[in-house]
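I'll show one example:
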Amino acid sequence: MKKRLPILLLLIVAAGLGAWFLHARSRQQEARATRLFGNVDIREVNLGFRVSGRVAEVLRDEGDTVKTGEVVARLDDEPYRREVDEARGQVAALRAHVQLLEAGNRPQEIAQARALVREREVTAANAERLYRRQEQLLSSKAVSVQERDDAEAAYREAEARLNSSREQLNLLEAGFRLEDVAQAKADLARAEASLASADLRVQDTVLKSPSDGVVLTRAQEPGAILQPGTTILTVSLKQPVWVRAYINEPDLGRIHPGMKVRVLTDTRPTSPYAGQIGYISPRAEFTPKNVETPELRTSLVYRLRVVVENPDEGLRQGMPVTVTLAE
């Protein structure tokens, strides 16, 4: 019995050591599964003008903070303002032309045309009487054939002039054609669109920040002649701030979009940032070389995005961080 006691104690100790080893290994795997490694990812934007021109002023320098809608640079807008004045004058002229066509002819012009018709009616009637008289006298040989022909020609001419004046009166009373009015309105609409484009080009000579951020690079100075899209300032946006992290395939079931996490940096290991998982890639990839993780670099992982809820100046672009899953 005494010989079996040491063996029994050894078995109990071995069993305890095995249980402790399994428990420690399980805790280690859980800790590894609840810790993710990644880098801070902050968006940057290159600010530039949509139009070409000469830089009049750049109002911000590297390191300056900017607010949403704040003016950061301007171009010389004199050429574009002259385009606006020219387009505005064209619009005014075409609008007046449309109003003229819609209003029709003036009453005075119609009255003048009617008076001309009455005058030519009298002239035509007199020429007809003279022609009839000459026709009768020709039968009695009182006038020559030439005189009768001259009277007939005068009558036909007076009659043609009367018809012409009547047609002119009808045109004045009918007004302008609908097609002419439609074409004038289309010309006016095209001129108004050109004016709007000119106004937009003037607005585009003022460069504003699209969001709160910090100026990283000032690429141009006043006096420079720029083409559209040339970068003036590079701004690092303050919102949103993300963490690009990676998780192993066996641990993928432990996370889900919207899950709360904590983001730790080396400078603030005891003051984590709150965040949540916003995106999990559906495609596996190799761990990038800049991720500080103890796993093998060649192991397949899934990329995820963590949205930091309370970012501040302590988070910088590319900074390595540790993401821990909230209990």
Remarks:
- The helical segments are 4-33, 78-103, 107-139, 145-174, 178-203.
